[in-house]
Amino acid sequence: MELKERVALVTGAGKRVGRAIALALAARGAALAIHYRSSRSEAESAVQQIIAAGGRAAAFAANLERVADIEQMVAQILERFGRIDVLVNSASVFYRKPLEELTEADWDINLDTNLKAPFFLAKAAGLAMRRQGAGKIVNIGDWAGIRPYNNYLPYTVSKSGLIGLTRALAKALAPEVQVNCVALGPVMPPEDYDAEEIERLRRATLTRTLGTPEDVARAVLYLCEGADFTTGATLMVDGGRLLN
Q: Annotated catalytic residue: which of 36, 95, 152, 155?
């Protein structure tokens, strides 16, 4: 797909990996719908950065735990830009908690944000893409969806489900829409990780490096621009972590 003059929605695009993806898509000529929940200033900053570079962008707020918010946001984007050609499900909840301390609320927030929301976003945006005749959906997953982390049980279940969802959506939205997943390894470790934990992550990869948001953005660009014959696939961007 040629991204110039297309419209892309990136969730959680105000900061970290989502922002890098949004900026990369904008650099290729796409107009950006920047989703945020609470990071309004960061989202507006991303919008201004894109506009300053000669692109088009607007910020849209939504609580992805609520389907009504998702449907309203997609409707607002379609009204503003007239179409959606690319959806990147980047927004995610990720925190550590041992099994003994997990609550129903922990389960719900992980599954609602990391799995239910991508489905309803893909449903709303994907049906619009199908009416247009073409589209790309990229889910941002995690290698933990294949080999679970300890003490992140709801998170790893949600990311495992996201890989399955990617395959199911690829069938449901075929042939017009291609749906793929990028499964991350250690990219931008959580802010509460200390130097020792970060070094442990680095040494656990085959490349002996940590990934960057730009590594993820390049993978997304590939799946949007150069992978028209690829759908239902999971692309590992993990420095070989899954193999180590």
A: 155
